Amino acid sequence: MSDPQLYFINNVVNGVNLLEVMKDHGCGKFIFSSTAATFGEPEYTPIDEQHDQNPINAYGESKLMFEKILDWYHFAYGFKFNAFRYFNAAGASEKLGEDHRNESHLIPIVLKTALNVQHGRSAEGLKVFGRNYPTEDGTCVRDYIHVVDLAKAHILALQNLDVHPNAKYNMGNGKGFSVLQVKTFLSCVGAVGETTVHHREKDFDILDLTDVDFAQIICQRHCAAHQRCCGDSCNCGQCNSRSRRQEARLSDQDNLLSRQQIGDAS
Question: 145, 219 in Cβ contact below 8 A?
């Protein structure tokens, strides 16, 4: 991590500033998006809410610091809060999905790789960081939660504050899936090759959570979360790809028309 101050400024300094403004205006309810990175290297899996929190990076440390600040604001000023420790938020709505400039999340990377192969932009396969983990297929296992489920959780948390005014919840599906399993689920877009490279430093083999009550409320158990995450991301990715191609064609047409008009004027 090259610039830890960004996390401490955003999550701690700006967080306290926000709490102070809320306190001054009599607003004492807070839903905090925390992270499973507060746990650090798992001592056991699945991870429950009582697992020790020993973050190994500035991102997790800054989130844990703000969780503790919320505890103090609860005890001192009567703030009511719920903190959600996200595991791996994934998926998409009908129109909105992940589209980062520098992508680091598995599902959109697989989709982008497949679409590049499909449209002849690149034949490079998916980089799999390590195949020697103590998992079923040798690749890392992660727990995924659908972004729509997370949105529902935030709404339900507002109703939960009076009953549990300082609660902290792990937010995931309760079951992890490996890199290769996710790749297989995303075959809806097209076949993707793979290249195994050396595993990254401090990549844990398994990071999933226990099936907690609050997650049960908001997760749609009739359809496996990983399939929904992959399927919705797939649909959104294909839709966005078509939109970008249409925008590119329109842009080319506009440029051609402009050149013709310039030529006519001269």
Answer: yes
